[in-house]
Amino acid sequence: PGGARMSLQGDTKTTMEHVSVALEELLVAARRQGYPASVPTGDLDPDCVVLCVLACDAEQEGDVALQIHFTLLRAFCCDVDINILRVSGMKRLADVLGESGEARDLHCLLVTNPHAEHLKLDEVGSYCEESRCNNQWVPLLALRDR
Fold first, then answer.
1. Which segments of 1-138 are extended strands (E)?
2. Which of 38, 77, 99, 130 supports an S-S bond with 94, CB 3.0-4.6 Å?
3. Order of strands across the sheet that contains 140-142
4. Do you know which InterPro entries this protein is assigned to (predicted)?
5. Peptide bond into 40 cis (omega under 30)
6. Where exactly are the structural domains of the chain?
7. Distance of alpha carbon 117 from alpha carbon 123, whole angstroms
8. Helix, strand, or coil (residue 45)
């Protein structure tokens, strides 16, 4: 009942791969419905946001402006109780979202479908919740080319 929960206590690599696939499926489903939205969107209703994805690769970790943006978004999301995931693998993220080249800024994405009853949202949300219980406030996933 209520769907399967992945435990961080088990095989961490398998869990990470499973959650990465779940996130990709969630983003594909959201894209079909016109989401996710790139941040910032001035008229965004925080009650409609179901997930925040902060994405950057190792070479972008030193970008001070991007890190400040991430810090502000994390504070906002924590304040209004929105799950947050950090991901690496910008090329894979662009592929999943059907974006080519530098067409759109994919560093900060909000899945903003209040009716997202997608099972993958439950899996990703459970992973975020369990990570917080283990003092990993913003879990990191590596998206890998397939």
1. 37-38, 51-55, 84-88, 108-111
2. 99
3. 37-38, 108-111, 51-55, 84-88, 140-142
4. GADD45 (IPR024824), Ribosomal_eL30-like_sf (IPR029064), Ribosomal_eL8/eL30/eS12/Gad45 (IPR004038)
5. yes
6. 12-142
7. 11
8. coil
On whether the pTM is more than 0.90, the answer is no
52 three-state secondary structure: strand
Tokens of 101: 């080249």
Residue showing tokens 């902060």: 54
Which CATH class, in words, describes the domain spanning 12-142?
alpha beta
- Is the pLDDT at 38 greater than 80? The verdict is no
Instruction: Give first-to-last CA distance, the chain, whole Å.
Output: 31
Q: Which residue has the higher pLDDT, 1 or 113?
A: 113
Q: Based on the number of CB atoms within 10 Å of its own CB, is 100 exposed (0-12), middle (13-18) or buried (19 or more)?
A: exposed
